[in-house]
Amino acid sequence: MIASTAPIRCLLYPSLGEIREHVRVELFARALSERLGRPVVMTIAPTYEALEAELVAGRVDMAWGTAEQCNAFEPQARAVLRAVRSGSWHYHSALVCRADAPLTLETLQGKRVAWVAPRSTGGHLLPVRHLESLGLRPDKLFSEQRFLGTYRKALDAVLRGESDVAAIFSNHTDALAMRATLTSYLGADAPQLAPFLFTISTLADGLILTRRLSEADTEQLVSVLTRMNTDGAGLEMLMGPFRVEGFIRSPGPGAPVSAPRPSQGAEYVVGELDTQGRCLRLWSPSGRAFGRDVRDVEGRTLDQALGSEASEPLMSLVRAVNRGGSDGRLEYRLTVDGEEKFYAAEVTPCAPALGDNGVRLGLLVRDVSGMRSLEDPLYRLASFPLLHPEPLLELGMDGALRYSNPATHVAFHDLVERGPTHPLVHAALTWAWRGMPPGEPAPTVHLDGRYWELTVTQLWDPPGLRVFVRDVTLRKQLEAKLFQADRLSALGSLAAAVGHEMNNPLAFVLANLSYVREELERLKQPLLTGVPVPRPDLDGIMEALGETVEGATRLKHIVQDLRTLSRKPPEHRARVAVQPVLENALKLLRGELQHRARLERDFHDVPTVDADEARLTQLFLNLLLNAVQALDPQDVARNVLRVAAYTSEDGAVVVEVQDSGKGLHPDLLARIFEPFATARPSSTGLGLSVSHTIVTDLGGTLRAESREGRGTLLTVTLPAAVPVADPQSLRAG
């Protein structure tokens, strides 16, 4: 057992599928952990380049690399284990085309090719090298070259007529072997494609064991990995994530093409028995079973060949099959060489051979100890979707429901009936069609008074979506209360400024109305008796009424601005122009600004954003209030508030609010967006925290830069509103 207990970190390249392989990767890691006596953590790299970067940086113990990566890192690795497929640790690449439109090397000119990925050996690099060795340059040979990401997608492109050629790895230069490989990807459609060219061979891909491992760790790993296919559990797990039946220590780039090698300990037995349990034939790859030599045992009973303890359950199965006349299967436990193991035995009546009057029984016994030890984690992984307490579903890219757990049907009774038109499905598909922008908040669906937040992930093979759904109603209600509390706080901060702003027009409205009343009282008698009134008197009254209307209109606008701010949080967003909202927030602070600082505007044309006008007003008002209150009222002549709006290079809307105040200490700057973090005792400390939440909910970012004595810069970046493409046109494209 390896003395160290530190986890072994293994990184896999990203060309694996999304569901079955991930579960088997987990099982493979657990099987290795049991055999090594220490944790093995396996993760899948997002890209081939990321895997190489981790290897170069020395941050992984093992990595599943392409053939090129194994070759490149072999000189500095502890060891490289090459994958064995169909008995070979070399492989080729095959160029395939449609069987009804055969191609040759001479007819490739001008054809369209579907490659897998730039770093894929069998799907790109190997066929390119082969063509170049023949004097053919792919960029001159093909009229179109596309990278589709997986073998399945590349082959599908040829099936659909979107490409003429694709490349796929081939263990042997044999059309029948190639047909088996194609069938594993295409099923019944495999006969529609045919290989027409096989490339030179290369050493296979495999596991790179890095120098982070000690020599002792490396040797034990090599021993475990090269023998995993010799017991009943290892083969299935190796076939899952790696599509291999075993590993061999790399013989070096100059090694000859693979040769057969004997098995060193396969724990399974096959044979033929008569109805009395005598061995007509008995065979094991290693020549041993149950700790005994099973060579040359023909004519002996099972008891004589395997020992009474091992043969007893097998003979009970033979008797049961003789009585019933059909197949029989039995799992049992047995102690062999002091170790308790689990076996699965199968006995099957054989079809009679020509001239054979006796009944023969086929026997297969396998060691399934490894799989039995992994049953609990297997059931745990398999039961996760079923027992997950919140809705979980998988969709095709057309909205077809592939799977949904019981919690989904409890929450959404009409999901199956409505299909792609259900709001939940529509929201997930819309999210995917928009490209699932990084950093943008998860979509939220409002149904029957409850809010559901979706976490959508892309599935690639086959294409689809996995959707986790969380009930966030309580959180939304708490957020609404927090936003409303912040609005009231902001309104309280504005009270003095707005009161001053309203007092000015209100004062001259009242004064003018008093003047008009006095003048009309003075002119009442002449007007009633028809005596002409001097024109200057009437002009004075009209001028006062005009000023009164202007003042009342100004009061109306102030009230409208306050109503915009005090709206409740929205249920749906709309397209909003940023600059008018920013101007509106500045108007609300006009009275405060006049007595605090000089305002500098730098506004440019910016695109609209998907937002709610009330929240956007609250956001800008919070930022402006924060900036204004940071300015020293005793230094009005030097105080400057700069507000800018422009479009970034990537098309996003950027708004900057910069003050010339005293700035923030680094400790406070690090916590500036936390609730209740404030430098002013009279402040609630909620404004910037709520602002940060608003910005992130809109898919944007809010950054703060500050230096003591130099002021603070707050920068808001919001994604521009992008029209949602028509789903039908996207599917058609």
UniProtKB/TrEMBL annotation:
It holds the Pfam family Phosphonate-bd. Keywords: Kinase, Phosphoprotein, Transferase. The keyword Transferase applies. It comes from the Bacteria. Transmembrane segments: none annotated. Residues 497-722 form the Histidine kinase domain. SMART domains: HATPase_c, HisKA. The keyword Oxidoreductase does not apply. Its EC number is 2.7.13.3. GO terms for molecular function: phosphorelay sensor kinase activity. It catalyses: ATP + protein L-histidine = ADP + protein N-phospho-L-histidine. This is histidine kinase. The lineage of its organism: Bacteria, Pseudomonadati, Myxococcota, Myxococcia, Myxococcales.
